[in-house]
């Protein structure tokens, strides 16, 4: 297994080498977090950006990696640290700006400009979000940033200025309604993701506390959102993240608390129709504690992938092309702990899994015919990774 080991000293020197070492299978959950890698001072696209929690002594903020499409290895370029716990990050469609949701204090969103040659990030500004964001998304029109604020129970809509910075007066929408039955996790509204549709006319927000997906209409002229529809999820399920089918006629919603997925057809006019509910993300007979995490659909619309934190695997489903319903294919262990997020590389040929509690990014090869994942034996170290995004 290849492992990219990072060194703080190498970062301070601004130079660097990529250190790769062999590991035994017994070492895969105790990978060393310290010290260094980097690349040469000037890199080249594509780049990988990893948002990390920053509560520990090795806090890293946003790590910038050069990604080598030939070897699939990632080499550290720099660490950006003017923000605390940037647990979810996103890029605009032109890859000119990066935005983070910062899970600290009262919560904020931050903006950075991206150097297209080196991948370096230049801090622009941070603005209070009216709660701690669990997710951030750039509206398809490129003029607004939307945050789903888990702590605070709100959704915020920021205007993106011409220089990429965020306006200081976002629209703040407070969620309300009947709470789910899980007293420990559904004691209040908890928006967990905001996902625009491809037209930009609607934004879907999953609220874990309300057991609901709320559909907002989006006014392109004013950049403001208004609730248009609300779809109840099974009681106690805790809707977390959403993923569109590439034809935009269906959306997949993963439920954190019940470890299930719901499938909805989308009519393009703000209406969701359930076609399949309570599809388990866990293997039959699993008895431990687990919480569903991320969900993705492949570019061909053939497979759905979802992560389980606790069971620590990725589950793979095939998609029925007529009904959009799911059939489980299998599970692949993430070779780490707590896979909070994962993402495809720019080609869709590899999936990179951010294992938050084992401080690594683990790479898997995607079989585009069967949907199955095979370990690529590549491990990249970074502290408490929570989100990974690529430039193309």
Radius of gyration, rounded? Answer: 20 Å
Q: In what range is the share of β-strand residues? A: over 45%
Secondary-structure class: mainly beta
What's the domain count? 1
Separation, N- and C-terminal Cα atoms: 26 Å
CATH class: Mainly Beta
Supply the number of helical segments: 1
Task: List its salient traits.
392 residues; mainly beta; Methylamine Dehydrogenase, Chain H; six-stranded mixed beta sheet; four-stranded antiparallel beta sheet; 1 helix; 30 strands; 2% helix; globular; disordered N terminus
How does this model look, in words?
With 392 residues, this protein is mainly beta. It has one domain: 7 Propeller (Methylamine Dehydrogenase, Chain H), CATH 2.130.10. It is built from one helix and 30 strands. The chain has one helix at 8-13; strands spanning 2-5, 19-22, 47-52, 62-67, 74-80, 86-91, 97-102, 108-114, 121-128, 132-138, 144-151, 154-159, 171-174, 191-196, 202-207, 212-219, 224-232, 239-244, 250-255, 260-266, 272-280, 291-297, 303-309, 313-319, 326-333, 339-344, 350-355, 360-366, 373-381, 385-390. Strands 2-1-29-28-27-26 form a six-stranded mixed beta sheet, with no helix packed on it. Strands 5-4-3-30 form a four-stranded antiparallel beta sheet, with no helix packed on it. A four-stranded antiparallel beta sheet has the order 6-7-8-9, with no helix packed on it.
